[in-house]
Structures are given as C-alpha cells and as structure tokens.
Design goal:
Layout lengths: L2 E2 L3 E3 L18 E3 L7 E2 L12 E3 L7 E2 L12 E3 L7 E2 L12 E3 L7 E2 L12 E3 L7 E2 L12 E3 L7 E2 L12 E3 L7 E2 L12 E3 L7 E2 L12 E3 L7 E2 L12 E3 L7 E2 L12 E3 L10 H10 L4 E3 L11 E6 L2 E6 L6 E4 L10
Parallel strand pairs: 2-3, 3-5, 4-6, 5-7, 7-9, 8-10, 9-11, 11-13, 12-14, 13-15, 15-17, 16-18, 17-19, 19-21, 20-22, 21-23, 23-24
Antiparallel strand pairs: 1-2, 24-25, 25-26, 26-27
Length: about 350
C-alpha cells in the first residue's frame, strides 16, 4: 500500500499497474517510480493542483493522453525516464505551464510530433538521452524559449535540419554526444546565441563546414573528441572568440591549416592527442599564443618523430616542451620560431 503524508505521496516500488485514485489533493510531491504502470489516462492528476514534483520513472508507460497532465498547474519537475514511450504527440505537455525540468531519458522515442512541447514556456532543463531519434526537424524546439540545458546523448541522430534550434536563444548547454552525426553544416547552431558548452564527442563527424559554428560568440567549451576529423581548415573556429577549452583528441587529424585557429583569442586549453599529426608548425599556434600567453596545448601521442608523447605549454610568452618518453624534463624556447616539430 502506498504511503501518504500531508504533502507527500510515496507509491514507488509498490507493483502498481495504474495511477492510484487515492492520492490526496493536497499532495505536493508524488513518487510513483519503479512500478508497472502502462499508461496515463486523461485527467489522471486533475485534482493535484498543489503538486510541484512528480516521478513516474522506471515504469512501462507507452502512452500519454493529451489530457494526462491536466490540473498540474504548479508542477515544476516531471520525471518520465526509463519507460516505453515511442512517440511524443502534439500538446502532450500543454497543461504544464510551470514546468522547469522534464526527464524523458531512456525511452524508445523515435518521433516527436509538431508542437509536442507546446506550453512549456518556463522549461529550463530537458533530458532526452538514450532514445531513438534519428533526426532533429525544423522548429522542433520552438516553444522552449526559456530552455537552458538540453541533453540528447545516445540517440541515433544523423541529421539536423536547418532551423532545428530556432527559438532556443537562452540555451547555455547542449550535448549531442554519442549520436551518428557525419557533417556539421553551415549556420547549424546560429540560433544558439547564448550557448556556452557544446558537446559533440563520439559521433562520426568527418566534415565541419566553414560557418558551422557561426553565431556562437559566447561559447566557452567545445568538445569534438573521438570523431573522424582528418583536417582542420582555415577559419573553422573564427566566430568562437570566447572559447576557453577545445577538445580535438582521438580524431584522425593529419593536417592543420595555418589559419585553423584564427579567432581563438581566449583559448586556454587545446587537446590534440590521439591524432595522426607528424608536423606542428609554430605558425599554426600563433593565433592562440599571440593573444593568450597562458595557453596549454596537449599533443599526447601525436606521432612526432622525436617525441611520441608530449605536452606543449605556452606560458608567459615562453614556449615549453615536455617529453614524457625521454628525459621527463622541460625544454624551454624563448620563441616559437625555435620550436618546429617535424619529421
């Protein structure tokens, strides 16, 4: 039997197959996780107008009625992770006008109908990891004007249509890690003018078009490690004037054009290990070192002729090279012109 206090209803781990009818109307917190609930009929919670937190995770829910959440006008957190949802239908969450956090991770969702997120004007956190999305369509997230963090990790996303991120002008953090992306097209992230952290690692990205990162003038962290990048072209990161940390390790990079790092005047840390570099010309690093002398550049396992594992550090205008495989000591160059590493 579920336990109820004045403000809390504890119905988790009770073997329930349906939403209980005895939840008191005064309840503020509802725990219904880890049961066998399969659906959310219309008006299941219509009397819970004081409820602010509800967890329905780890059930077998495969269907949400458009009126399922009617009455939950004060709900701020809704957890629906680890269920059996395959589709989000239009107006699924419209009654939840106060919702701030929505968890839909680890379902089977492959389709998001137009206006599925209608009404969620205050939503700030969206967790969508571990589903089966294959594409992000135009205006998919348009109603989410207050969204600050969105996690889309471990889906099957290979296509992002132009305009997919329209309306997300307050988004600060976006993760598309462990998807099937191949190409980052021009202006892909342009609507994300407030974005500070972008995680794209463990995809299959082999091409970054010239204007892929245009508009991301507030980006602080960019993680592209463990993709299939072979070359970094001139001006790839030109718009990223506030970027502080750039992860490019464990790709297949053989060539970095001289102007590849143009615009990165605030970069402090660059990871390049696990690539196929055999040459690093000092001019490649000059856009970074000229403007930010505290820059750290890691090129571990870069297959340079003399140094299989190395750490390059530019500090206070002095270029320092740390060889771990050999003498474990610092070699100091007063100028990058004295530090050309090639076969």
């Amino acid at each position: 039997m579920a336990a109820a206090t004045r403000d809390e209803y504890t119905g988790g781990n009770k073997g329930l197959t349906a939403i209980p009818a005895d939840i008191p109307g005064s309840t503020k917190t509802v725990f219904l996780h880890n049961n066998n609930i399969t659906s959310l009929p219309a008006n299941s919670f219509a009397h819970l107008r004081r409820c602010t937190f509800m967890t329905l995770g780890q059930n077998k829910i495969s269907h949400i009625d458009p009126e399922s959440f009617q009455g939950l006008i004060r709900l701020k957190t809704l957890a629906l992770g680890t269920n059996e949802l395959t589709q989000l239908k239009r107006n699924s969450f419209t009654p939840l006008s106060s919702l701030i956090s929505l968890s839909l991770d680890n379902n089977l969702i492959s389709t998001i109908d137009k206006e599925s997120f209608s009404g969620l004007r205050k939503l700030k956190l969206l967790y969508f990891d571990g589903n089966q999305l294959t594409q992000l369509t135009r205006n998919m997230f348009l109603p989410l004007s207050s969204l600050e963090q969105m996690w889309l990790r471990k889906n099957l996303i290979s296509t992002i249509q132009p305009g997919a991120f329209t309306g997300l002008h307050n988004l600060c953090e976006l993760s598309l890690t462990r998807n099937h992306l191949n190409v980052l097209s021009d202006s892909l992230f342009e609507p994300l003018t407030s974005l500070q952290k972008l995680f794209l690692f463990e995809n299959q990205i082999s091409k970054v078009e010239l204007l892929a990162f245009s508009g991301l003038r507030n980006l602080f962290v960019l993680n592209l490690h463990s993709n299939n990048l072979v070359q970094l072209k001139n001006d790839t990161f030109l718009d990223l004037s506030k970027l502080n940390l750039l992860h490019l390790h464990n790709n297949k990079i053989t060539t970095i054009q001289l102007g590849a790092f143009n615009g990165l005047r605030n970069l402090e840390t660059l990871w390049l290990f696990g690539n196929k570099l055999t040459t690093i010309q000092p001019e490649v690093l000059s856009p970074i070192t000229r403007s930010k002398p505290s820059c750290l550049v890691f090129t571990q396992k870069c297959k340079l002729k003399l140094f299989k594992t190395c750490l390059i550090c530019v500090l206070r205008g002095i270029f320092r090279f740390h060889c771990f495989d050999h003498c474990h000591s610092w070699v100091v160059f007063k100028s990058l012109k004295n530090a050309v590493f090639s076969e």
